[in-house]
Amino acid sequence: MADELMVATRKGLFAVAPAGGGGWGVRDIAFKGDNVSLAFADPRDGARYAALNHGHFGVKLHRSDDRGKTWREVATPAFPAGEPASVKTPAGDLIPPAVSLIWALEAGGAAEPGRIWCGTIPGGLFRSDNRGESWELIRPLWDHPGRAEWFGGGADLPGIHSILVDPRDPRRVSVGVSCGGVWVTTDGGASWACRAQGMRAAYMPPERALDPGIQDPHRVVLCAARPETMWAQHHNGIFRTDDGGGSWREILGVEPSTFGFAVAVHPREPDTAWFVPGVSDQHRIPPDGHVVVTRTRDGGKSFEILRRGLPQDHAYDLTFRHALDIDSSGIRLAFGTTTGSLWVTQDQGDSWSPVSQHLPPVYAVRFVA
């Protein structure tokens, strides 16, 4: 069971740990005042990673090998010098690629020590085999003709935000792209195919709504015990696949909303998943000002609305795609919001306890064993 949380915020990386009386509290802060856009803990060796976005001064990546006591800057993924203009702007222009955000970090397989995968804006997938000391651009995906259709969603440029490594076969890796669908490799990155058939893009003209390569999955996760089952919180719905992305099924009629960014799935029960709903598109607030979490235990046939301990009056908390997490026990979950609130549950969401309601805007929450 996890014993700590890494909480990446607009003004630092917070270490949150269990406190007296069964609650949780802030234990420490690193990078105080800096924009920490993503946090990641490698379950294989305990290393922790923090991605920083310094705006005009660029993107940086840091690693800690002593549980966050000290940090050292490592290499930042970068596109090769002289890379031709191939990134489409909202105006339709093509510009040379440059990493503006580290949007995903994930460990390789158990038998791949040192391997880390990284997704970026603008849509680059990188791999390191030495714990972030150097990075390689995965050219077969970057050079795939299908990438020409990718475009920005909430961000101006397309980006890779979800990386799923099959625990049974680490050569099988899936990535979620906004907006570009879900892409899968079964040979460690040497070849790729779009696997978003069945997803529906309501924001596109009707004749293109079902095109796999222009879908906007906000977040994609897999069940560790049955990796062929994946859940996606899409821009305009909730989708599930039971064949590794070969076909996706839309989950309809979910109250109070099927819009949102975050999704978590139970590590051993593929039919159990959690979502934090919001209101699209321009509002980006909880439905009716009520912060709730929705949970299904039967694969999407029915949903419960979980609200005990969450604010139900004039609440305007939005949860970003990396700001909901579940620990290895499948019992504890935590999520943070744009208004600086952080909640933890120790009963799968039946009740929630506030850790803090005064943090900076929360970008990512990760349990650490």
Q: Can you characterise this structure?
A:
By secondary structure, the protein is mainly beta. Helices cover 1% and strands 40% of the residues. It has one helix at residues 139-142; strands spanning 4-9, 12-18, 24-30, 36-41, 48-53, 59-64, 72-74, 87-88, 94-95, 101-107, 116-121, 125-128, 136-137, 159-165, 173-178, 181-185, 193-194, 217-223, 226-234, 237-241, 249-251, 260-265, 273-277, 293-296, 304-306, 324-326, 333-336, 342-345, 353-356, 362-368. The strands form eight sheets. It has a four-stranded antiparallel sheet with strand order 3-2-1-30, with no helix packed on it. A four-stranded antiparallel sheet has the order 4-5-6-7, with no helix packed on it. A four-stranded antiparallel sheet has the order 10-11-12-13. The longest helix is centred in the middle third of the chain and has 4 residues, at 139-142.
Keywords summarizing the entry:
mainly beta; four-stranded antiparallel beta sheet; 1% helix; 40% strand
Ordered list of secondary-structure elements with their pairings:
Blueprint: E1 4-9, E2 12-18, E3 24-30, E4 36-41, E5 48-53, E6 59-64, E7 72-74, E8 87-88, E9 94-95, E10 101-107, E11 116-121, E12 125-128, E13 136-137, H1 139-142, E14 159-165, E15 173-178, E16 181-185, E17 193-194, E18 217-223, E19 226-234, E20 237-241, E21 249-251, E22 260-265, E23 273-277, E24 293-296, E25 304-306, E26 324-326, E27 333-336, E28 342-345, E29 353-356, E30 362-368
Antiparallel strand pairs: 1-2, 1-30, 2-3, 4-5, 5-6, 6-7, 8-9, 10-11, 11-12, 12-13, 14-15, 15-16, 16-17, 18-19, 19-20, 20-21, 22-23, 23-24, 24-25, 26-27, 27-28, 28-29
